Amino acid sequence: MRFFVISFMIVVCLSACTVPKIAVDDAGWSQKEELLVKGRNGFFLKEKLSFGEFVTTKVQRSWTTGSGWGWGIGGNHWMERLSIEFVRRKQTVRFQLRDANGNESQVTAFSKIKWTDLSIGNNPNSLVNIIGDVLQIGDDGTNTYAVRIATSPKDTAWEMVIDNNAAQRNARKYTGLLAKSKSQYYIVAPVYQLKNKQGAAVSLPFGGSVGFEFRRPGGETVAAVSLIDKGMVYFDRLPQDEKFLLANAAAALLLQQLLE
Asked: Which of 101, 144, 207, 236 has the fewest CB atoms within 10 Å, counting from its CB?
């Protein structure tokens, strides 16, 4: 994160104190919405976050044992097995996101954890282990951001895994994953370019990333989130259920800075 801050400050100075927009790495990107984030002022976050029709409840950084979500989410049990120490050290955020149609999610995210903390035995059907296999994550990952997104009490939750160190060191090639199963997933790729005053894409002076884009399995980008300053969320024209899911993932990435 320190590397990102240094790169960002240099970019801001070079652009005469105006915050540039991110440049998505997809020639076919068809941006339909550009939503400014509220509640995230520079590098500080308030207790709620909103962009467009989406708004979080008060963000919780800790809770007591036994105060879990009311939904019984099937198929995802790694979160309950993580040590309560992650909560005590305030390495966890929990929030709900609502949209204009009354949909409501339940999201829990853990930061700065080791991949071995997430791996549950040798169960090949564990989604966390599936994600690890797909991303080829080894036992040396120590700055992983893991998120569980439950968009419905009747359905299996989605899980997102981002290796923050790799996303900064190797922004051009690294990919994270937002997945529900082997066939239902999105690639989460770092955004490593900004638009200059002429609208052309330019890379950061010292590399690194300034946000993330969400790609369907076919490779097309359908949403993106900028982590610069207050933040910005971008959407293509999407079905509401898909948009709601990606809004939750974007909110979780925006809130990660609360844990730094």
From this structure: 101
| In the chain, where the domains are located | 2-64+72-259
Alpha-carbon span 63 to 96, nearest angstrom = 15
- The C-alpha angle 33, 36, 38, rounded to 5 degrees, equals 140
Angle made by CA atoms 146, 149, 150, in degrees to the nearest 5: 145
Helix (H, G, I), strand (E, B) or coil at 189: strand
Residue 128 host element (H or E): helix 127-135
Residue 13 CB-density burial (10 A; 0-12 exposed, 13-18 middle, 19+ buried): exposed
Spacing of C-alpha 21 from chain mean position: 18
SS3 category, 175: coil
Q: Whose structure tokens read 């040798």? A: 122
Averaged pLDDT of the chain: 77
Q: What is the pLDDT of residue 253?
A: 95
3-state secondary structure at position 74: coil
What's the rounded mean pLDDT across residues 228-236?
93
Rounded distance between C-alpha atoms, residue 203 and residue 207, angstroms: 7
pLDDT at 135: 56
Residues sharing a CB contact under 8 Å with residue 26, sequence separation 6 or more, in sequence order: 213, 215, 219, 220, 221
Task: Tell me which H or E stretch contains 36.
Answer: strand 33-36
Look at residue 125 in the predicted model and tell me its pLDDT.
45
Burial of 256 (0-12, 13-18, 19+ CB in 10 A): buried
Query: Do residues 221 and 26 touch, judged by C-beta distance below 8 A?
Result: yes
